[in-house]
Amino acid sequence: MLNETVFLQQLQSKNSKEQAFRELITQYKERLYWHIRHIVKSHDDTDDVLQNTFIKVFKNIDNFKGDSKIYSWMYRIATNEAITHINKNAKRLQITNEETQELAINNLQSDVYFEGDEIQLKLQKAIATLPEKQQLVFNMKYFQEIKYKDMAEILETSEGALKASYHIAVKKIQDYLTKD
Amino acid sequence: MKTNLNNIEESGFKVPENYFENLEASILSHVNLKEKATDAGFTVPKDYFSKVEDTILTKVTKKEPVKIIPLINKKTIFYISSVAAAILLLFNLNIFNNKVTYDALAYDTVENYVLNEDIATEELATLFNEVDFSEEGFEAISFSDEAIQDYINDNIELNDLY
């Protein structure tokens, strides 16, 4: 990709905005998709959240000052949008966020876009038992293999804290999977 | 004292407490987990990623039809007239300057008030000054025998006379 400053200028210039934005989507669509998918679980919900994320990026790119990298800013928007989506669903169904997540995992069994076996389903159930922040850290490290340095910028947490959080998460999941 | 390499026995590096004790467990749990499931099992619809740019760009670049708002329309005139009428009424009704005087009150109004408020005779008595009563005032009123008879019949019990 082009130098980030030049790319940002293109995104903020009226003449090149659309073309640069298309390039931005191409660069990040898959990474952000998988980041969101691991939070909300179903493809349809992920599609909604991904589109909302990019629409928000498009609307706010002119105010982006470049204090952080574009990709970490987009990851933060995607994370917030995904969590907001779960909260909205919980409110609509008048259940807690944890119950919403449980429901999403139960729905995976009949989801045509989930081809996981019994262990993978159990892994999702194990992840759901973790606190929200540990879930994010685990998903980002285990499935997406994001570097701690980048994760620290996205989640605005120190690398040390993230490493500790990840190891605790792995231990808890391992215990969950082997308990019966 | 000069620094001599032979005097430096340690590098100064340290490791977190219990690092080596927990290392095996930490690596093994990660390896074991990876052996069980390398991915989450999620899939995406065919061609989803090749179409997503167009889907999003169509949404963000969709031009909203420009609404033409006429400067003067029926609705605006209605609102302005309502506000003007309300202001005019406020000044012309003069509702804040009306002072109520005792003379302006009808006798019936006062009578009804006294009856409805259930004011005791003693309370009423305190409202009158001695000067309000003069013998002339009473002399001027004459009651017919019939009225006196009716009053006695209606208000005085036989037992009260004993």
TrEMBL record, chain A:
Keyword vocabulary terms for this entry: Sigma factor, Transcription, Transcription regulation
Every RNA polymerase sigma-70 region domain range: 24-91
InterPro entries in the cross-refs: RNA_pol_sigma-70-like (IPR039425), RNA_pol_sigma-70_dom (IPR014284), RNA_pol_sigma70_r2 (IPR007627), RNA_pol_sigma70_r4_t2 (IPR013249), RNA_pol_sigma_r2 (IPR013325), RNA_pol_sigma_r3/r4-like (IPR013324), WH-like_DNA-bd_sf (IPR036388)
Signal peptide interval: none
Top-rank lineage group of the source organism: Bacteria
Pfam families reported for this sequence: Sigma70_r2, Sigma70_r4_2
Occurrences of domain RNA polymerase sigma factor 70 region 4 type (ranges): 121-173
Similarity remark: Belongs to the sigma-70 factor family. ECF subfamily.
Name of the molecule in the record: RNA polymerase sigma factor
